Amino acid sequence: MRVLLINPPRENEIIGNNPPIIEEKRGVNPPLGILYVAGYLEKYTDHTIQIIDCQVERLDYEALEERVRSLHPDVVGMTAMTMTLIDVIKTIDTVKRVDAGTQVVLGGPHVHIYPEETIHIQGVDFVVLGEGEECFKELLENMDDLGKLRSISGLVFKDNGEVVNTGIGPVIEDLDALPFPARHLVPYKKYNSLLTTGNVVTTLFTSRGCPYQCTFCDRPHLGRRFRARSAINVVDEIEECVNMGIRDFLFYDDTFAVNRKRVLDICDEIAGRRLKISWDIRTRVDTVDGELLKKLKNAGCKAIHYGVEAGSDKILKILKKEINLGEAKQIFDLTRRNGIEILAYFMIGNPTENRDNIEETFRVIKHLDPDYLHLTILTPFPGTEIYAEALQQGIISKDCWREFAKNPTPDFVSPHWNELFSREELNQLLVKGYRAFYLRPSYIMKRLIKVRTLGEFLRKASAGVRVAGMR
């Protein structure tokens, strides 16, 4: 069987309540979800597995159709996120136009929240719920036996018009048992990021699930329980990447440092193998300390992405962040003293947040003085606690995400917490916050001094032009 996994173009992405710069500035990263599925299928099946990443290859739908026609897939799989659903549907249409008999399988966070709405999308044959590696394999091996499929957890499909939902299967407990992502199936040397100094970058997960209760979190398909790979397994993957010529890594765990000992073990393993790499992590300010930061730096960690989110402890409590600004300031200073750069995540337009609160957030950002700022307007995403609260309180008058899932249209506008501000007012405040941070002469000079390669300069100069042009 010929199995083709597609990362669709992003021509119709819903960018939430934020201008395009927020999305563009991050570069192009590998589609880890389908790379994991591809690696699993390559190891445990005899099927022919291929991947088309339209984003890194810059393929439009016409070019995608030509590629699909040349590969003659029997099955096409995709990850569906609510924000990219329009492009997923256009990709399905493209696949079915080439061959209406090609079976289309969707997985990802959107289908986890809206399984029945997804199976009713024209052209969708199967939906995989939760983590997809094992379930996708079972689906491929039993695709022609609907009776057998009814006994496989994690599937949604139609049988003579009846929607069959077998329920969400158990999470994968032993993450070390999963094969590494099949990076060799994509043009991996083309991936890049504004935040790296090299020209080749990859992302990787060392864990799944997050135990924290932030009300805005939108990754429900991976669960709340933290499951982690061993240090040896993680560094084995890093070493495999180094052998492929990749030395820059973005660790995409929701909260990398949940297990302190595991982080120290990963650092020791990297140092013990003398791997000369550069890597970033995402974690919380309450999961690190001086010893851990020193270990991270010695192992090649050059940047940490901290989610602070708001400039007042009152708003932080509403978001259930369970941190405080004094703690954030202490850890930011400690991180800097250990020679690690900082990317700070902040949001505006949070529940009960007024203009004074937002101005205070801008002052806090300058006080914390991160190396990079990722500022967004809060979007209450489907499946989150904050979206449920907005519906319950009447802040959002109707279940617009479910309506979009039932009838996806390109003119959909994502909701915001509209208690005190219009969308236009929040957009103006967002632009003000970005320009106030990034266009400071002292900041520009500091960043220029640290540039090490032409590629890095061009990526950062491009982002700078977009900031200057924000309106």
Largest sheet data = 7 strands, mixed
Helix vs. strand class = alpha/beta
User: How many individual helices?
Assistant: 20
Measured on Cα atoms, how large is the radius of gyration? Answer: 22 Å
CATH topology heading of the largest domain: pyruvate-formate lyase- activating enzyme
Which second-level CATH architecture of the largest domain applies? Alpha-Beta Horseshoe
Approximately how much beta-strand content do the residues carry? Answer: 15-25%
- Specify the CATH homologous superfamily of the largest domain: tm_1862 like domain
Look at the structure and give the mean pLDDT: 91
Q: How would you sum up the global shape? A: globular
| Spatial order of strands in the largest sheet | 2-1-3-4-5-6-7
Portion of residues within helices:
40-55%
Description of the structure:
With 471 residues, this protein is of the alpha/beta class. The protein folds into two domains: 2-165, Cobalamin-binding domain (Rossmann fold, 3-Layer(aba) Sandwich); 192-379 and 416-468, tm_1862 like domain (pyruvate-formate lyase- activating enzyme, Alpha-Beta Horseshoe), CATH 3.80.30. It contains 20 helices and 15 strands. It has helices at 21-24, 32-44, 54-57, 61-71, 85-98, 109-113, 115-119, 133-141, 146-149, 231-243, 260-272, 290-298, 313-318, 325-337, 355-368, 385-393, 400-406, 423-438, 441-450, 454-468; strands spanning 2-7, 48-53, 75-79, 103-107, 126-128, 155-159, 162-165, 201-204, 207-208, 227-228, 248-251, 278-283, 301-309, 341-348, 372-377. The strands form three sheets. The chain has a seven-stranded mixed sheet, sandwiched between helices. A six-stranded parallel sheet has the order 8-11-12-13-14-15.
